[in-house]
Amino acid sequence: MKLKFNVTGMTCAACSARVEKVTNAVPGVEKAEVNLLAGTMQVEAENGNVVPAIIKAVQDAGYNAALPGEKKTDKAEAAPAEAALKEMKKRIIGSAICLVVLMYFTMGNMIGLPAPHWYHGVKNALVAALLQFFLTLPVVYLNRVYYSRGLKALWHRAPNMDSLIAVGSLAALGYGVAALFRMAYGMGHEDWELVQSYSENLYFESAAMILTLITLGKFLETRAKGKTGDPKALPAEAALMMATVCGARAQGRSAECGVIELGMDADLILLDFNQPHLIPCHNVLSQLVYAASGHDVALTMVRGKILYADGKYPTLDIADALKELHDYAIPRVFSDEPEAQA
User: Fold this and answer.
1) What is d(CA 5, CA 22) in angstroms, rounded to the nearest whole number?
2) Quick check: 65 and 15 in contact, CB under 8 A?
3) How far apart are CA 204 and CA 103, in angstroms?
4) DSSP notation for 11-34
5) Helix %, strand %, coil % for the chain, to 5?
């Protein structure tokens, strides 16, 4: 039985690999494949009873999974792409405001920008450091999602991109906090050299910069992904035309294939629409273009010859093909001669 899930919370290839791994470990699951860009997962299972176990396994891994059309209880996950973009935009604006002010105080003197008198001098170093710290805190709070997801993935020994962001920004933030205590200690003991040393090596702006720029990048990525996944951008009829008629025309074979007509090559692909993610079918073309995948192919015919049918390849000996591939590839992979590798 083939099942399709919508998976949210994935940010990189490590995330999709983690989701595949935990899903394949669920009893009753034969095979799982994740499409990171589309945020979907195709699962081949013995029966539909494994759905709750799959969803729980994905959630325990730090992500969320649901069947298409299933009502979600998590408002953040149930929100459409527009709402997600709006939320990210608010985070970017808030983070950018704090970052600009923070950079003014930390880097402004390098380009001759004026600063308040109370900001300069070794005796005001702790005041300046505390100002930087409190300007960084809003950025950390606004982008706390990286810590909740990244540290959770790290705890499960499956680090992803969010883990890298969390560790990198926390390292800068943690060093800055430690520097605050060292500066306070130095001022209490009138060790002004110690105060001066730490005041010149604060990294609060680094933590804020990492979080702000990463969020900006994710905003642009999500917006671009939303446009490419918008069915209105390319109607199903046009997509099918591009894959068939226009594809044959691009190859210079429009007189041989591309359409189902008398005299044309019998190149056909039949799909099994009796699948949970393809039911109900209100529009065949829309389901074919936007919902179906290679897993739904039941038969492939080229020039009237059946090459694939119901999971079997009648014209191909899989064992011989793999052996031939092995015999061809292995000598070239491990050969030191450039000619053999070419």
Assistant:
1) 14
2) no
3) 10
4) -SHHHHHHHHHHHHTSTTEEEEEE
5) 60, 10, 30
**Rounded distance, CA 34 to CA 38, Å?**
9
Total residue length of the chain: 342
Given a contact cutoff of 8 angstroms between Cβ atoms, the answer to whether 30 and 44 are in contact is yes
What is the rounded distance in angstroms from the CA atom of residue 329 to the CA atom of residue 325?
A: 6
Q: State the Cα–Cα distance between residues 207 and 193, nearest whole angstrom.
A: 25
Determine contact, residues 62/89, Cβ cutoff 8 Å: no
pLDDT at 8 over 80: yes
- Of residues 177 and 226, the one with the higher pLDDT is 177
Token readout for 340 is 């053999």
pLDDT tier at 74, thresholds 50, 70, 90:
very low
Per-residue pLDDT of 180-235, as tens digits, reads: 999 999 999 999 999 999 998 899 999 999 999 999 998 988 787 766 666 666 78
- Cβ(146)–Cβ(211) under 8 Å? yes
Mean pLDDT along residues 310-332: 85
Contact 55, 65 (CB under 8 A): yes
- Asked if 214 and 162 count as a contact pair (C-beta separation under 8 A), the reply is no
- Angstrom CA distances, 12 to 29, 210, 221, 222, stand at 23, 17, 12, 13
What is the C-alpha to C-alpha distance for residues 29 and 50, in angstroms, rounded to an integer?
Answer: 7
Residue 307, SS3? Answer: strand
Instruction: Give CA–CA dist 140/337, Å, rounded.
Output: 53
205 to 95, 102, 198, 252: CA distances (angstroms): 11, 7, 15, 57
Q: How many Cβ atoms are within 10 Å of 10's Cβ, its own excluded?
A: 26
CA angle 255, 260, 264 (to 5 degrees): 35
C-alpha 131/C-alpha 136 separation (Å) is 9
Contact 310, 299 (CB under 8 A): yes
> What is the residue type of 282?
H
Selection from 116, 141, 133, 137 nearest residue 184 by Cα: 133
Q: Which of these, 175, 103, 160, 170, lies nearest to 140 by C-alpha position?
A: 170
Cis amide linkage into residue 276, ω under 30° from 0: no
